[in-house]
């Protein structure tokens, strides 16, 4: 009897977490899956079973194709740029810079502490075509004025720029933690062999921070697919849906159009697609990663 009670003890402590996880994660997912099979909106308050009609409509909707393309472009650009900038910054700030090292670390991490809505408003001002500092300084280089948030070709890159600035400090901090686990003797041996900065980065640092890179990569994929705040604050999905992304598209259907069936179908596709991407990444990348120094 005592052995059984001891075996059950860990599960008793897990009950509060499991209840919260079930109530706020698993139940909403299952509920969204259920609602996605119904025609349920402000014009039909009672749900009407529609089968796969919502999914068929989305797969044929050109706006959905544009939103999906915007999301994939955003993910494909921001992830490698943010990770590369974070790694290089972490490597530089891991060097001996005296008391200035802490100052530089705080300065690099500071954008992460700025609330996302405030960061969006800051970049709206910086990218203002008339009074923004970005156009002001580009003018010195002979670059013509760019309507960053109103031009169909520049609106999405503008959001990418704000996203990289906002997120790279967080990844830099994770990389700094990973760099602390690399034995200094390996760098000393590389110095004796006459290796320069780039050789040490390629043959020592990159292989040994591979586990950290996998973690950062997965976190970056999840956060990139979930981008919403910057789009909501900076462009509202415009101009012409050129900055509309999946999460903002779900928000539009749910809270602007009041079409809960379609919003649920979008949510199911979003979660399923993100899960597939994560599984593929883990399968392809983790086989090449060694967790021992």
What features would you highlight for this structure?
globular, 13 helices, two-stranded antiparallel sheet, single chain, MetI-like fold
CATH superfamily of the largest domain: MetI-like
* Tally of DSSP helical segments: 13
CATH architecture assignment of the largest domain:
Orthogonal Bundle
The SSE string, one letter per element, is HEEHHHHHHHHHHHH
Task: Using the alpha-carbon principal axes, give the shape.
Answer: globular
Give the structural class: mainly alpha
From the alpha carbons, calculate the radius of gyration and give it in angstroms.
24 Å
Instruction: Give the mean pLDDT.
Output: 89
Number of distinct beta strands: 2
Helix content: over 70%
Strand content: under 5%
Largest sheet composition: 2 strands, antiparallel
In CATH's first tier, which class of the largest domain applies? Mainly Alpha
Can you tell me the number of structural domains? 2
Distance between the termini: 45 Å
CATH topology of the largest domain, anyone?
A: MetI-like fold
Ranges with pLDDT <50 over ≥5 residues?
none
**Main β-sheet, spatial strand arrangement:** 1-2
